[in-house]
Amino acid sequence: MPAIPARRTPAHFWGGAPATASAENRVYVYNARKGGALRKTIPVGNSPKGVKIGPGGDYALVANEGSDSVSVIDLGRMAVTKEITVGDTPHNSVFTPDGSRAYVTLQGEKSVAVLDMARLAKTGELPAGESPHNVDIGPDGERLYVANIGSRDLTVTDIAGGEVVARIPLSPPHYGVDVTPDGRYLLATGVGRSVVNVIDADSLERIKQIEVGQGPHGVRAAAGGRYAYVAVTGPDEVAVIDLQELEVVKTVKPGKSPFWLAHVGNP
User: Fold this and answer.
1) For the residues of 85-114, what is the DSSP string, one character each?
2) What is the Cα–Cα distance from 94 to 74, expressed in whole angstroms?
3) 183 with 139: CB under 8 angstroms?
């Protein structure tokens, strides 16, 4: 397998890799350049789940399910600068490519909160399915792709028009979702089965289900666009998918029950 070129991300500049600790209401920040040494712990809201670093490297967002809020972490100061009330049971978030806005899934509702990152304020909501869980955005910033636990589908929302333009059935939940860097495919898992759904981003038709083993959840395509990586809980593997051939070309044993993952250039 050829080497995949890395792309510089904010973590290279501020040297941190954040992880939420839901039982402690904290975010742990590890030094990504010094062997993963603990750098700081940051108190956030209740039951923090998804954490996402903005493309400019200025902020990270932490979705706090128990307090219906998002903690905004200033990455320069490594401290919470604001807590924004967003709606019922936020789970995860995604930034626009330019970092000007962020979108937060609200599992207790049928919508996604819209945040203005200049004002650090909620400005509205966009529709999704029932119990929206994880979310990604296209490289052009025009559409949101939301995997919904309650309705067991992937909703495609036109951001400018503020409406759902497609609903694509998925495997049993819950889900990971990723848009490939070239915007060609949508990849959606379903931990209740054994496949990764490959959806054509233009036609919005599912073109293949790739068998990866029981319990796939986290999925991320590499920044170079050739490969995607899937955390598969059942066999304790990460499956490597060739996005040209649309098949698994390798598996890796990272440890017990791999659940989520990130890739340099696609956190």
Assistant:
1) E-SSSEEEEEE-TTSSEEEEEETTTTEEEE
2) 17
3) yes
Q: Which residues contact 58 (CB under 8 A, 6 or more apart)?
A: 74, 75, 76, 99
Q: What is the pLDDT along the chain (267 residues), one digit of tens a residue?
A: 333 333 334 443 445 677 888 999 999 988 767 667 888 899 999 999 999 999 988 899 999 999 999 999 998 899 999 999 999 999 999 999 999 999 999 999 999 999 999 999 999 999 999 999 999 999 999 999 999 999 999 999 999 999 999 999 998 999 999 999 999 999 999 999 999 999 999 999 999 999 999 999 999 999 888 999 999 999 999 999 999 999 999 999 998 999 998 887 787
| The pair of three-digit structure tokens given for residue 21, joined into one six-digit string | 């600790």
Cis ω for the linkage preceding 174 (within 30 of 0): yes
C-beta of residue 115 within 8 angstroms of C-beta of residue 122: yes
Radius of gyration of the chain (CA): 17
